[in-house]
Amino acid sequence: MLDVLLFPRCLSSVDSTPAILLRKTKLTETSFIVTWFTEAHGRIKTVAKGARQPRSRFAGLLDLFFDCEIQFARSRKSDLHILREVVLRHPREGLRLDYTRVALASYFVELIELVTELDHPAPELHNLLNRAFTHLSEKPASLKALLHFEAELTRSLGIQGQENVTPAVAIGRVYHRLPISRPALLKSLK
């Protein structure tokens, strides 16, 4: 009944796109809200109806940092779309080998969420995040990887080289903050 109230028949087109799973949050006893970073549509939120049920069609397909091909029905009335199908392209098992890799991947997600808006395509940033996750899946987390991601992010956003400041300072000035996880992450990567 809650699904009917929250998601009336206000859906329009069905879209397919490569997507990286950024975040998932419990919505109801049976459903999740899943945040994706897509190649074609930027950052989007979908409802995965029934995903928390034992025999869900989404079982094993909705985990952080997964690279997928998704199909979703776009809502005409809100920024919360309905997830229809997920095909796992790359689970990135190596990314989960140690806590530091997961922490660095989470930091990258926080940066992407900071600098993007919902439903605004950013294919260059999708490519950057995809490359970063592939790197972390194959190699240990490092300070060099963190600094490289920040530098590439500022270059893509067109804010690099402002007043000869570091990329982190440039991001902080433009977006008025950095993820709070950065100081602890820097200590663990030294």
What does this structure look like?
This protein is of the alpha+beta class. It has two domains: 2-90, Nucleic acid-binding proteins (OB fold (Dihydrolipoamide Acetyltransferase, E2P)), CATH 2.40.50; 93-189, no CATH class. Helix content is 37%, strand content 26%. The protein is built from six helices and five strands, in the order αβββββααααα. The protein has helices at 2-6, 99-115, 123-138, 143-157, 167-175, 182-189; strands at 11-26, 32-38, 42-48, 67-75, 80-90. A five-stranded mixed beta barrel has the order 1-2-3-5-4. A hairpin with a 3-residue loop joins β2 and β3. α2 packs antiparallel against α6 and α4 (143-157) crosses α5 (167-175). The model is unreliable at 1-5 (pLDDT under 50).
Quick description:
Helices cover 37% and strands 26% of the residues. It is of the alpha+beta class.
Number of helices: 6
Overall form: globular
Mean pLDDT: 92
Number of strands: 5
The tally of domains stands at: 2
The SSE string, one letter per element, is HEEEEEHHHHH
Q: What strand line-up does the widest sheet have?
A: 1-2-3-5-4
Gap from first CA to last CA:
51 Å
| Global structural class | alpha+beta
> What is the share of helical residues?
25-40%
Unreliable spans: 1-5
From the structure above, extract its key features.
disordered N terminus
Write the layout of secondary structure elements.
Layout: H1 2-6, E1 11-26, E2 32-38, E3 42-48, E4 67-75, E5 80-90, H2 99-115, H3 123-138, H4 143-157, H5 167-175, H6 182-189
Helix pairs in contact: 2-3, 2-6, 3-4, 4-5
